[in-house]
């Protein structure tokens, strides 16, 4: 079952000789529960593509459908609510709220939506990620790897349709990077969670179920 479909996505910047084709008529789909890596060099368009998929930016052309809903024509307020409920984000820089403890950071998407926290589920994912004893700590008391584990837990907390990971190991050393990648793989398998990760690291990408390559804004392999 397809959980995400991107059709003919286009995003250009500038005009004339300064025109940049960040995403150039790119299409692909992702199955429910699949772990997909989108690989490309710096400037290949992978971050722009992820932003289009996640509704953080609007395409010039094309459509994105997530869990049966076309997000392309959603109004800003509608899209904000949809993102909060259906899309989990993991960023390179963690983006944790420094004045909130670990637990409050994790459940923030659920609270913002006015829903009850599934404490049993939160316990399961924090235990899975090895941060169950850090729930009262604050981000500045954690290592980079621990902060990224919290970010992963936050992305999972609302039980989203998809999780989008933007270079999730970019700020980590090689050992911690391997640990985080292993956790993402385990999360995908144990929770049947759909994950789409962008990376320039081919070694990290090998842990995914499928690798999509992007060059100069175009999908050049791995699409279907």
Would you mind describing this structure in some detail?
By secondary structure, the protein is of the alpha/beta class. It has one domain: 3-Layer(aba) Sandwich (Rossmann fold). The chain has a 6-stranded mixed sheet. It has a 4-stranded antiparallel sheet with strand order 2-1-4-5, with helices on one face. Strand 4 and strand 5 form a beta hairpin. Helix 3 packs parallel to helix 5 and helix 5 runs parallel beside helix 6. The radius of gyration is 17 Å and the shape is globular. The two termini are 13 Å apart.
CATH architecture classification name: 3-Layer(aba) Sandwich
Shape, per Cα inertia axes:
globular
Listing every helix as H and every strand as E from the N terminus to the C terminus, the arrangement reads EEEHEEHEHHHEHEHEE
Total DSSP helices: 7
Text of the CATH class:
Alpha Beta
Corresponding CATH superfamily = P-loop containing nucleotide triphosphate hydrolases
| Unreliable spans | none
Strand order of the largest sheet: 6-7-8-3-9-10
């Amino acid at each position: 079952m397809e959980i995400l479909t991107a059709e003919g996505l286009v995003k250009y910047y500038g005009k004339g000789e300064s025109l940049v084709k960040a995403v150039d008529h790119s299409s692909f789909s992702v199955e429910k529960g699949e772990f997909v890596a989108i690989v490309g060099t710096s400037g290949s368009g992978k971050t722009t593509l992820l932003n289009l998929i996640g509704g953080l930016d609007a395409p010039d052309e094309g459509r994105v459908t997530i869990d049966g809903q076309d997000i392309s024509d959603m109004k800003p307020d509608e899209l904000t609510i949809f993102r909060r409920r259906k899309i989990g984000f993991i960023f390179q820089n963690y983006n944790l709220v420094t004045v909130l403890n670990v637990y409050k950071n994790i459940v923030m998407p659920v609270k913002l939506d006015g829903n009850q926290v599934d404490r049993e589920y939160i316990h399961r994912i924090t235990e899975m990620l090895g941060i169950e004893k850090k729930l009262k700590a604050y981000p500045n008391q954690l290592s980079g790897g621990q902060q990224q584990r919290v970010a992963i837990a936050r992305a999972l907390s609302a039980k989203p349709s998809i999780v989008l990971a933007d270079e999730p190991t970019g700020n980590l050393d090689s050992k911690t990077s391997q640990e985080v990648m292993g956790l993402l793989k385990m999360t995908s398998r144990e929770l049947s969670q759909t994950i789409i990760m962008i990376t320039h690291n081919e070694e990290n990408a090998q842990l995914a179920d499928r690798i999509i390559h992007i060059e100069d804004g175009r999908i050049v392999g791995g699409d279907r």
